[in-house]
Hints:
The protein is built from 17 helices and 10 strands. The protein is of the alpha+beta class. Strands 4-9-10-8 form a 4-stranded antiparallel β-sheet. Strands 1-3-2 form a 3-stranded antiparallel β-sheet. Strands 5-7-6 form a 3-stranded antiparallel β-sheet. The termini are far apart.
Amino acid sequence: MNLADMLSYADIRELSHIARTYACECSTNSKNELIQSILSSIGRKEVFEQQVGGLSMEDIRFLNSLLFERRDLFSLEELLARANQTRFVKEEASDWNPRDTIVKFKHRGWLFNGHSQQTRYLFQVPQDLKRKIGEVLTKQFAAKLQYIGTDPTVYRDEQELLVQDLSALLRYLQQQEVQLSADGYIYKRNLQQLLESFAVQEEQVGRTAWRFGYGRRFKEYPNRFSLIYDYCYYQGLITEEQQVLELTLEGRKRLEQGRTEDVQDIYHFWLRLYKGAIPNLQSLVQWIDRLAHSWVTVASLEQVLVPLIKPFYYDAPESILNHRILQMMMHIGLIKIGEEEGLGRVVMMTKLGSGVIKGTYVKEEDKIELPIDKP
């Protein structure tokens, strides 16, 4: 439902709170006057932009958790959990209460209780307001970004290459038996042969203090190869039996039929795999799609998006954006990454990437659970 519909179901008390938020001058005893005055105020561009511009970072993070949701209804417990996740640094002496966030958004007219017997204990955001908030935030974020009008001197575009290398892994396993270590990993000699056969080269993982949370075999495999391997494993194309890595019947069929993977399926899998470590990954990718329609500097993109990213153990927000999100988006073929003299790295969405992102949605609870193998 849209704002006008939700206002019509709200009671006088709720309408009065919203009217006070927007400093409406009208009779608080007339429901019709309250509704018309609220709609008039929210409809004024400068008033609405001022409301959005005055949001705290915690408020923006809370909104961010709702803007790209395709669901209409949320329980109070869900909203409280989302509000709790907006505070990345919790101060012991703080008397902050997540319920205050819910009340604040209700008083803005951005959250309403359902009106039916089945939905009265649930909450929803007016659809037209959700679009409007998204547009205003996009405009405000974009104003902070640095765009360049031409292609950078050099850039990498890996569209379709990950799909090719995924097939290369299957062909390698078709040709030879690969022994696994007692821990279930490919031995370094075989892994090096595989990596050298790929279109995109990666170095093997060196000694590191930690590697967990971004894939089932992420501990010992480089980022891109780890994604390819895990995708094949979870799709039932490869199997690990008695310390031997080999193709499944389905994997053999794929090769015999010459079938290749759909980029949209790989992107969907990546969201499910990484969202345990990055809960708002889907919304961050949506922002990149909205903001990187032309070449934009990574440095300016960091200023806008890093505050929305929660650290994951030893992984800082800057590292998450650059290595877990932007780099992996490039590997999947969603973005191009270049280098511009004096400006550093720049990124831009590919046409393929924009279409894939717009056509894909992963539910909040749909993620791949991974063990946290902390050192």
